[in-house]
Amino acid sequence: MSTFLFALKNVLRNRRRSITTVLVAAIGCAALLISGGFALYTYAMLADNAARESGHITIADKRFFAEEEETPMQFGIDNPNDIIAVLEQDNRIEFVLPRLSFSGLLSNGDKSVIFAGTGANISAEIHVRGSFLQIEAGDINPGKDINSIAAITIGKDLARALKAHVGSRLTLLATTADGSMNAMDAVISAIVTTGWDEADRRLVLIDIEYAQRLLATDKVSALSVYLRDDRNVRGMQDDFLTLGSGNLMSKPWSEQAFYYASVKALYNRIFGLLGVIIALLVLFSVVNTLATSVAERTREIGTFRAIGSYPQEIVAQFVHEGMVIGIAGVFIGNVMAWGAAFLLPYLGLEMPPPPGRSIGYPLLISAPVLLYVAIDALIILLCCAAAWVASKKAANMPIMEALRHV
Amino acid sequence: MTETVDYVIDIEGMSKYYALGEDKISAVNKVSLKIPGGAFAAVCGPSGSGKSTLLNICGLLDTFDAGQYHLNKTNVGGLNETERTKIRRKEIGFIFQSYNLIPVMDVFDNVAYPLRLLGKDKLQIKAETAKILEKVGLTKFATRIPDQLSGGQRQRVAIARALVKRPTLVIADEPTANLDTKTAETIVALMKELGNQFSVTFLIATHDERMTRHCDKIYNITDGVLA
Ligand SMILES: Nc1ncnc2c1ncn2[C@@H]1O[C@H](COP(=O)(O)OP(=O)(O)O)[C@@H](O)[C@H]1O
Ligand SMILES: [Mg+2]
């Protein structure tokens, strides 16, 4: 009889107890897979959001990433269209979107509120990013202007502060690149929510040509590069150093995604601690049930020792039994976790908004093979370790004591 | 020219003490014992006389406190547990009063187990196990588990397990105590027959008349002292 078959037969000896042990391993496995899958889904979602927002790679003046501008557009990129033309030759790159960041006051005539504006090619943004804003009212892409007045999309709290609606006319006030004040009429084409309270109070989205006109500049603040394959991000960072007059620099999305990084750090701790607790519970529980089996089989252990088995051979036998339990537990645990991953999309459950956000996100879990392999290996290892702990002492007790055991 | 006898067991002045509260009792007291190879020897005495203690020491399952023990001319007194396990694995077979078979293993696997420990290859294990099963008359029961066997059959399995590796010494502590007279007779006869065939030395503890009749050497023990 092979060691494995012998282990299996021993596991099947006390079925009720073995089933309990297997279920503990299974539930521990499923809990780790589900919580890990949830964390990974959340990371992937946040990463995707962050990459969509900033582009996989942002290209800007070196100083743009490090310093504050003294005057608007001080660190802007000259001749952005020339650079875009060069970049679009690179077949790893799918799109390059110019963006212009600026700030100023938005006024309804009676009241002025600070805004943080982005000038962008709206239809290109929609093409690349999908419906990246949640529309409360109106149309974010009515064209650059409506009846020759700049069309703007604003955050819902900014709209409320100004008592403005779709179609309301407002005035944008900003400092130009050469330091004077400029004003421009605008009409609200859409009111949106970003899911971020702070952004909803400040957001103004306007066509980039109108933004350049308001700031009296030809420059843009930065270029957002979208790749065909996001795995290329790492390898491409240094490729842009020679662009422009050599003073440009690129940053991958991950270095700018502070929210992503902080949520990931927080979840890593929470789920890491949870994982350790679950692992310990599995370990103790399996040790406990296996110790009962070991005690019941003390005389058998004595017999094996008398016939000539070494203690480590007996421990190895129990470790095989732990492995059998672990494999059975992992199998059931995987089915449970995979079932949950499969069913959740149909249930349409929502997670409450994470800190700092106003909209929740769907409760889904990822089920990557690597996670399953790692967790399965961990659970099986834990069961083996539990068997080792449970049998070590009995395997090493004096033979006569073991043989006299009843 | 003096003829030298090869003793399997050669014990000189051996004692084994157990603490009993403040006192210590000598379970085995200054025992000297020489058993030549191929003997079918019995240690006889009433319950508590020290038979099991002596046999356990002879089978290297237990240690002793004073004296000398040469097993197959090897001084085994100073050996550690690993070294003693190695000798047991190769050279000593055991037959227990309550059979001590492994309940999840069938007859074949119970008997083959000592050969597996010796690392023999599959074909050899199969052949040797089949051979010994035939000798104890259990060929037809090879796939049964111990629970499906009678006491006499179980003890036959134990005999086969003890002999399959052709040890030099078999230790049998009251092997017939759990059996009825008729079965006990056949079991003793079987042990004796196979002992002769394989020239294995048997050391049996018993207070069973049915047993001692077959033995060629009988040592009487009382209160740990050999007569
Ligand atoms: N583990 C032990 N601890 C203490 N005393 C023991 C132990 N084993 C045996 N004894 C004592 O040693 C003596 C001999 O016992 P044992 O060898 O079992 O005798 P037998 O096998 O002839 O019945 C008895 O007095 C018994 O109580
Ligand atoms: Mg006894």
Structural account:
With 406 residues, chain A is of the alpha+beta class. Chain A has two domains: 3-50 and 260-404, no CATH class; 78-220, no CATH class. Chain A has 14 helices and 13 strands. Chain A is elongated, with a radius of gyration of 31 Å. With 227 residues, chain B is α/β, with parallel strands linked by helices. Chain B has a single domain, classed as P-loop containing nucleotide triphosphate hydrolases (Rossmann fold). Chain B has helices at 51-58, 81-91, 107-117, 122-135, 151-163, 181-197, 209-212, and strands at residues 7-20, 23-36, 40-44, 66-71, 74-75, 92-95, 169-173, 201-206, 217-222, 225-226. In chain B, the strands form two sheets. A six-stranded mixed beta sheet of chain B has the order 6-7-8-3-9-10. Chain B is globular, with a radius of gyration of 18 Å. The two termini of chain B are 31 Å apart. The model of chain B has no long low-confidence stretch (mean pLDDT 94). Chain A binds chain B through residues 1, 6, 9-10, 13, 299-300, 302-310, 313, 398-400, 403, and chain B through 56, 59, 61-62, 82, 85-86, 88-90, 92, 94, 96, 100, 102-106, 109, 113-114, 117, 161. The structure holds adenosine-5'-diphosphate and magnesium ion. Magnesium ion is lined by residues 51-52, 173 of chain B.
